[in-house]
Amino acid sequence: MSERISTWRPWSSRGTSFTILLLAVFAMAQILVACSEDRKTVEPDETGACCAASGTCSILSESDCTDAGGSYEGDNTACSPNPCPQPATGACCQLSGTCTVVTQAACTTAGGTYEGDDESCDPNPCPQPTTGACCLSDGTCSVDSSDDCASNGGTYEGDDTACDPNPCPQPVTGACCFDDGTCQVITAIACTGAGGAFEGDDTVCDPNPCPQPATGACCASDESCTVVTSDDCATGGGTYQGDDTSCDPNPCLTPATGACCASDESCTVVTSDACTTSGGTYQGDDTACDPNPCLTPATGACCASDESCTVVTSDACTTSGGTYQGDDTSCDPNPCASSATGACCFDLVCLVYTEADCDAGVGQYQGDGTSCDPDPCPLLVGACCFENGACAIDTPSDCAGNSGTYQGDGTNCDPNPCPQPTTGACCFDTTCLVYTEADCVAGVGEYQGDDTTCDPNPCDSSGEGACCFSYFCQIYDRDTCLSFTGEYQGDGTTCSPFPCSDNGGACCTGTTCLVISQSFCTGDYQGNDTICDPNPCMTPEGACCAVGGADCSISTEALCDLSGGSYQGDDTACDPNPCSASGTGACCLAGGLVCQVLASDVCTLSSGDYQGDGTSCSPDPCSGGDPTGACCTAGTCLVVTDAQCFGTYIGDDVPCDPDPCPATGACCTASGCVEFDQTSCGTLGGTYQGDGTDCDPDPCPTVGACCFPTGFCGTATASDCAANSGTYEGDDSLCFPNPCPAGVTGACCFSEGTCLIVQSTDCSAGSGTYLGDSSSCEPNPCGPPSSTNGACCLGTGSCQVLSGENCMSQSGLFLGAGSDCSPSPCPSGDFLGVYHYETTSTYCDTDIVTSHFEDDLTICEVGDEIDPDDDPDDPDDTVSCKYEIVDGQFVQTCVYEDTDDGCTTRTVIVSRFRFDTNGYTATGRARIEMSGEGQFCIPFSSCTDFSFTATRTAPPPDPCESSSLAEQQEAMARVADRIVRSTLR
Is residue 671 predicted with pLDDT exceeding 70? Predict the structure, then answer.
């Protein structure tokens, strides 16, 4: 209503307007009169359709139509339907590329370009404006023209550029802290606008870096207690108890009272604190002094139905349903326990207890008379799946602790039950690798789409050719060759003949052949331009006759000559025996290490000690009285003492005729073909091809370099490489230098509060917490060290619940976070003894076995240190080992550095151990890195995961070095480290 009133003027201002209105009405009346008079005397003009040039039609008189420039269609003609001819139309193009069908005049008026009469807009004949990616300040991308991009304040990336992948620089973000302690990752401007405190570019919110508001106990009127801030407490009408105060115990409760017994057995009703202050004994809240509870009643042993024993009064025993054993009787020894014992399972640990003690310790009793040998306690393990598709055998709790998904008891990883992440081809310039989309983008690659492959290569491909590293040749594309500081020989060039500056040829190291330069060959160089196919390193064998003797053995010509024998020729046999036996005897060679039947003059000529005509080597006269027997070394049998045997000692008094040594054959390992016996082949993790087989021709699947997502390179077949998410670099390709792109790293927090820049997989292997790719350790984002408590074995077996750090400081053996001392899990003796060891190594995060080791070793001395190298006199070799508790496990970390000729090899081995009375297990990771500027220094890195078991099979020999449990624990860790290092060499 107010709007309508505001449009009217007051009545006092309407006088003039009203007068004018009256005059207008009068004038109109006069005109109507005049018109009426005219109609009485003039006839109106005839009308009809009038056509304008634009094709429109209107009803006019002929004269009016002519005056308007139209075409009169005749008297009484109509405009419906329209009789007028229509003007021609055609396509009209605007600068924006849009097209409309209009007349030429309309097109010109609109600023367009007329394409001609009758031209259509389908298809669109108009030229389209050039467009490209336009980057806005917030990092978003849209496809616009250059002008539209500029008008929107964007940056034009160029004609025909695209927004997929997004080429726009992203705004820098970081952690923003708010007053309530919450954290959000936003830009600095957004943080300031929201009233927050910006922590710096690229900082993160996990862990939360924001200071938290102080809290404390807050008492409500109903005596309830909550931990809140001072402001929240006041808002709720509570009473704040101060910063950092706790609700446990509740400070809000009105103190209760009860009976307090003094030393003279007198009784008063006071609070618990007042009773304690006076030196009395508080009887409990709401207890009374009538009757007097302070009088000392007679007590004795009381047996419960579960055979447990407590010292109580007769009345208390009867009330609880127990059997009173009499006044002043004791529970030590326990009068209630039966004598029957049996195996009791505490999770994975087996101990012999009575049934009552087993039940009291929440164990699982296996029955009277059962024992812990064999161990009846099942290890509940199964397959554990991780986000990256990897599978590991673990317990349900360890699987959950490592963010895995447990697949069920008894499940296994072969075949792998874990869902694999979706991958596709990823282009790094001209190089194609199969990655997940996230890994591809993180590595600044161009993802080609899910399930795409690198065969054929979807990336722009340049030519390939020979790449020289002075001492060997490899086929690479030009960019890859130059990135490895090689000398590219040109597209289409090959490595045969050897094109590099230093002449090259076949180099034999044992039976292994490589085409490298002569200066780099440490074996037997076969000559310039020689090749490895066929293999020139396979040494022929034949019959070897001990000179002047009847002993015949099969060996190489060189070994036969070394022993003073007579070589009968390649491929000759000992059956029938081609050797003569006249005038011979036992001859001690090589300082008594080897005994052979030779002629007297031949023995003397060979600097041997002749034992006389007719003497023999069985028993061995050269051993100084020690028993001798057959020793098998690389398929050759010699009779020596056990100490002199550098191979496999078959046993005392075992002769070499008939030959007791196991047959040899071709063994296919991850590194290629070698000739070993079947047992040694299995130790190497190889596949034995059968007795009598050899490596020429090579029976093994072709192998090459395999690049894994972590950046390390291993040798594998193409199928094994693909099965383990690797990228195969081609048959016979090498890992030296490493052709694999470096893995992404980030900050890793360990429980002791330290921060290291490592790959995410190495962080997990060391029980660390990974903070994300490209995260930083400056400033240190890791919190204070954890101190989770658990059972600690001290001295000769006593047990206390301590933190891991406290346990180690007292030279104790920490059994893990969450373990307890009831019943005591500590060994009554020590860990020294004879152990059966077994370890298996694989390439990191794969199932490709690199080695397998089994042996029996005795641990008796515990004070020995770890030497980094077989040459302890080398001053450039260093080693450092530390022992700590990480996430409730004993962890050993050893770092080795060996510098030789300007090249440094650094080995880091991290091992996590679990101990029990029957032995110990370990899992861990070993990484080797080489760097430096030496002539033969090839930068590379390798990564190996290992699992390790040691089962005690016998007590130690007597005497053994006296030592604490902690010293023994570290000694066993060092033994494990040596075994792992031996598998890496």
Answer: no
Say what the pLDDT of residue 470 is: 56
Cα R_g (the chain), whole angstroms: 47
* H/E run at residue 488: strand 487-488
Q: 717 to each of 420, 670, 702, how far by Cα in Å?
A: 21, 8, 6
Give the DSSP letter of residue 623: S
CA–CA distance, 357 with 366 (Å, rounded to integer): 13
Alpha carbons 849 and 188: distance in angstroms, whole number: 50
Q: Is the dihedral angle over the CA atoms 724, 725, 730, 733 positive or is it negative? A: negative
Give the end-to-end CA distance of the chain in Å, rounded to a whole number.
98
Burial of 892-928, coded b for 16+ CB within 10 Å and e otherwise, reads bbbebbbbbeebbbbbbbbbbbbbbebbbebbbbbbb
Whole-angstrom distance, CA of residue 578 vs CA of residue 36: 158
DSSP string covering 662-717: PPEEEEEETTEEEEEEHHHHHHTT-EE--TT--SSS--SPPEEEEE-TTS-EEEEE
Residue with tokens 């397998």: 852
Q: Taking a C-beta distance cutoff of 8 angstroms, is the pair 908, 895 a contact? A: yes
Q: What is the per-residue pLDDT for 643?
A: 65
Q: Is the peptide bond before 957 cis (omega within 30 degrees of 0)?
A: no
CA angle 848, 854, 859 (to 5 degrees): 130
**Helices assigned H by DSSP within 766-912:** 804-809
Is the Cα dihedral 950, 952, 953, 958 positive or negative? positive
| Span 59-86, pLDDT tens digits | 898 888 988 888 888 888 989 888 898 8
Chain segment 478-493, per-residue pLDDT in tens: 777 776 667 777 777 7
- Taking the model in full, what pTM does it have? 0.35
Q: What is the pLDDT of residues 810-860, one digit of tens each?
A: 777 777 777 777 777 776 567 778 888 888 888 877 878 877 777 787 777
DSSP 537: T
- Residue closest to 453 by CA, chosen among 416, 418, 427: 427
pLDDT on residue 349? 65
**Are residues 487 and 480 in contact, defined by beta-carbon separation less than 8 angstroms?**
no
